[in-house]
Write a structure and sequence with these properties.
Layout: H1 16-47, H2 62-67, H3 71-77, H4 88-112, H5 120-147, E1 153-158, H6 162-173, E2 179-185, E3 195-196, E4 199-203, E5 217-220, H7 227-236, E6 241-244, E7 256-261, E8 264-269, H8 276-311, E9 317-323, E10 329-335, H9 342-352, H10 354-363, H11 376-382, H12 390-396, E11 400-402, H13 409-412, H14 417-423, E12 429-431, H15 433-437, H16 444-456, H17 460-475
Helix pairs in contact: 1-5, 3-4, 4-5, 4-17, 8-12, 9-10
Length: 481
């Protein structure tokens, strides 16, 4: 059967001129952030003069004003401009590596050419500010450009089956990837004229020619297509970029590299958590952050403990045995947010509200939980501050800052043995991918998917991303109860 002509009404995608302006704005905001970082670095070093005497003159740093402008070139080199197809974790990794590399070059330049004219303290402080200010200013701008529909590259998807639907849904949810679905093509005529999500199925695969001028990426989402036709299809596509989604669901997706094995295509899957050096690095990060955080949190913990005792009789801290790494039993500490007879109150509430029992069995959370202490209990749980005592668990080595949450036994019993074994292979954490993705609104399936993704795709960059998202979630506690 002949192909149906592509639909005229296609979802809007960024026009070429608007796209160019969007990228220019991102580069400009990075330039402003970098120069602001230099200014903050100089000011911070100036105020440190009483401790570390130094002579600072504006003329000294005229060259450094130009030096930090090499950073956008490094960002371009690692693919941050325009950054299409890069997730948040990969952008963090690229930005950190590029920043360290450029400031290492500036340090070498200072010693070999400038004659130590630039202060090492100014260079170090500027680098630290650049690592914070550049992404902090760029992220909201990117979100604004995405919301206005001026950031992204149009993508045509080949395959209107389950895989194609998954791709469309993912690209819609992960809009910061910058891959904007333009149309879907499928050889099944019964699907023509319909939509996948909000993306039209515009005809058969042979209609791909009509999109060569409008789309920049062709994404093949037909995992069961025979090898000969797949090869021919890839060779016939005239697109700057062709992405093939293979039938490899269930394995990790980050840090997977293609390898040419003498003409044979292979995928190298790096098991990062099995590398001893990575476990040492993760433990070092835990201790370096948990120790000062616990010291800073100590006065707040004392204040909360007094408030809890004033509201309810009983200990201010709650402890419970949970499953740690390799099935080891660990004692997890929290600030008490519930009444002492919480289990009896829960059963009475669920018996009186049968509909709520279904929510409890699905989420193990209740929006109107009768066990929660008034005032202090709701406050601590809403901002997840009741888990601050677990910083002590981190220092003990029972937990990590980031990892799957150590669930109670009644919660774990609802997961499969395979998933429980996977969770037990890593150290549990205070925060995790599930918490920063859906928080209390995620059911058991969402929890399993998020924890599985984290364990299979772990890297230091993923931990940094989750920690940054955790700060954002604490400031805007959507979905917490």
């Amino acid at each position: 059967m002949s192909a149906v002509a592509p639909a005229r009404q296609i979802v809007s995608v960024p026009q070429a001129k608007r796209h160019a302006w969007a990228i220019a704005l991102i580069v400009l905001i990075d330039v402003l952030a970098l120069e602001l970082s230099l200014l903050c670095g100089c000011l911070a070093r100036y105020f440190l003069r009483p401790l570390f005497p130094i002579s600072l003159h504006a003329a000294q740093y005229e060259g450094l004003v130009l030096g930090v402008l090499t950073l956008p070139l490094a960002y371009f080199w690692v693919g941050l401009y325009p950054g299409y197809g890069l997730g948040a974790v990969q952008r963090i990794r690229g930005r950190v590596l590029a920043t360290f590399f450029v400031f290492l070059l500036l340090l070498v330049w200072n010693y070999s050419v400038q004659g130590h004219e630039w202060s090492r303290g100014v260079l170090l402080l500027t680098m630290c500010f650049a690592l914070v200010l550049a992404p902090a200013l760029e992220a909201p701008l990117r979100k604004l450009l995405i919301a206005r529909g001026v950031y992204g590259v149009p993508v045509v998807i080949l395959g209107g089956g389950n895989t194609g639907a998954l791709v469309v849904d993912t690209l819609r949810k992960e809009s910061d990837l910058g891959l904007v679905p333009l149309a879907v093509l499928d050889d099944n005529p019964l699907k023509w004229g319909r939509t996948l999500g909000d993306v039209p199925i515009a005809g058969s695969l042979s209609a791909i020619r009509a999109f060569e001028k409008t789309a920049k990426v062709a994404l093949i989402a037909i995992p069961h297509l025979d090898r000969a036709r797949l090869t021919g299809l890839i060779e016939s596509l005239s697109f700057p970029s062709v992405i093939v989604v293979p039938d490899l669901f269930g394995i990790q997706s980050l840090w997977t590299t293609s390898r040419d094995l003498g003409g044979v295509l292979g995928f190298e899957v790096k098991k990062n958590l099995l590398v001893p050096a990575n476990r040492v690095l993760k433990r070092t990060l835990d201790c370096a952050l948990a120790a000062p955080l616990l010291l800073l949190a100590a006065p707040f913990l004392v204040f909360c403990a007094v408030w809890i005792r004033a509201v309810s009789r009983g200990p201010a801290f709650f402890r419970q045995e949970r499953e740690g790494r390799n099935g080891k039993r660990i004692t997890v500490w929290k600030l008490r947010t519930m009444y002492a007879d919480s289990e009896r109150a829960l059963e009475q509430y669920l018996d009186a509200n049968p509909g709520e029992r279904l929510n409890w069995l699905r989420f193990y959370k209740l929006r109107r939980d009768p066990r929660i202490l008034p005032g202090i209990g709701w406050f601590l749980r809403r901002y997840s501050l009741d888990e601050l005592p677990q910083l002590w668990n981190v220092l003990r080595g029972d937990m990590s800052l980031v990892g799957p949450r150590p669930f109670p036994a009644y919660h774990l019993e609802n997961f499969s043995n395979g998933f429980r074994a996977l969770r037990a292979s890593v150290t549990p954490g205070i925060t995790g991918l599930w918490q920063v993705s859906t928080r209390s609104e995620g059911d058991l399936k969402a929890q399993e998917l998020a924890d599985t993704y984290y364990i299979r795709n772990w890297s230091l960059w993923l931990d940094v991303y989750i920690l940054l998202r955790t700060l954002d979630m604490l400031l805007t506690p959507k979905g917490a109860y």
